[in-house]
Amino acid sequence: MSDETRPNVRGQMLPGIAGISMFMIFMTMLNAYAALRGSFGNGTAKYGVLAMCSLLAVGIFGLLRLKKWGWALVTAGCLLLSVGDFFYFEKTHAGFFLVRGLFDLMFFLYLARTEVRERLL
User: Fold this and answer.
1) Residue 2 pLDDT more than 60?
2) Are 16 and 64 in contact (CB under 8 A)?
């Protein structure tokens, strides 16, 4: 379609964006809680996870407002979570990490689509 016949979709949220945001805020809360309980250690890793969770939470709320910076933070967060889950699957062979990593990778690929990017403000 040419640009003249295409309807203006800027500022209109897709249902997938809302679903991804709900999943990612849930994962952010779980990781922040685990970091505060000491699951990632008590040193640099704990504060690194808390910093990443804070950035991802800010990005999620930016994505819900359809801001480009929010989209960038959540897209990077999906990719990093996917890589981390695949790493843990390689080390532990726990199927949970493989399934969660595939979901995160699927969310990353969805957010990278042109239809999603052209709706951002």
Assistant:
1) no
2) no
